[in-house]
Amino acid sequence: MKSTIFPFLSLKKGFDALSYRKNDERHMKKRLYQYFLSARFVECAIGVYFIVGAIPKFMDVDKFAVLMAAYKVIDSPELMQAAVLFTIFLEVSLGMLFLFGVRLKGLTTIGLQVLTIVFTILIAYAWRVNGLEDCGCFPVIKMSPPVSIVKNILILAGSVYILWKLVLFPGSKFKTAEANPEGNPIQKISRPWNPVRLLAAFVFSIVVSLACAGYAWSTFDTAALGNEESDGEGLFAQFELFMNEGYFNLADGTYLVPVLSSSCPECKEKVPDLNDLFMNPEMPPMVALCYEENPGELDEFRSEVNPVFPLYSIGARPVLYFRLIEKESFRLVLVQDGKARASWDGYVPDVELILDYLVAPY
To answer: Which CATH superfamily is domain 229-359 in?
Structure first.
């Protein structure tokens, strides 16, 4: 009787052992997926953040250039343009590499960490030294330096988490999986793509990044970078204006040139004082250069504050506007033969002060 039953008992134990092994493998795979899923989620979230943040930058590169110029660490317009385009390229490429899981043995994550640390140092410096108000991380949303620094710390923490779980010690909590190198679920989950697909994802990311930077370069207001002092002409020499109020060639002669924005409350407050200067017969001709972000704002400006001096719209050219004002949102410039002889930021000077500059040798 026992001899008849024993084979069936042995067979049952074998099936039980096989079932237990399969259940154990399924349980381990489930834990592995949970283990790697959290790190992969953080990796994708960082990638999406950089891509979403880069889109408004290359779509409106002039506005982004103005935000970067507010850091006041780069004086050369040409270097500023290069820094803007390189930043767009870096953000798009890093975002796509993270999204695709192209880690390059940790180089992608380390590059992100270096970039984040450099940006954090620049933000802290510009905030404490130059009074930076908007870091420019999301050009469509104003982000204060303290908020941006906290955000960067979170990104750094997330990158360390990714580096630890997906690069340095993938699956270190699951030693039993290493006993079966064939079909090891750790390898399948932590490195899901073969080298050919990784190479394709890397090349695709670089090509898209170059395309975004190229588009930004094609729409950049390069004309605003011209007419440098080193070229022998002043910044204002580019303005030869044919207006209903008359002809104004700022490259020839002496002019008072208010530089303002049609949506700036401070600029609107200066209009009565500018009207008085314009009506003063001792003053040189006056023509204002007005930044108009949206069509029709200049007409609203005129109807609200009633300027009696000529107003010329430079349109939505933030790079040019920022170069003309440099610091404050309002600037009055005494221009002689295209060059700024004197300027006053944030206020309208007395007539006597302007006359002193007019009679002084140049």
So the answer is: Glutaredoxin (3.40.30.10)
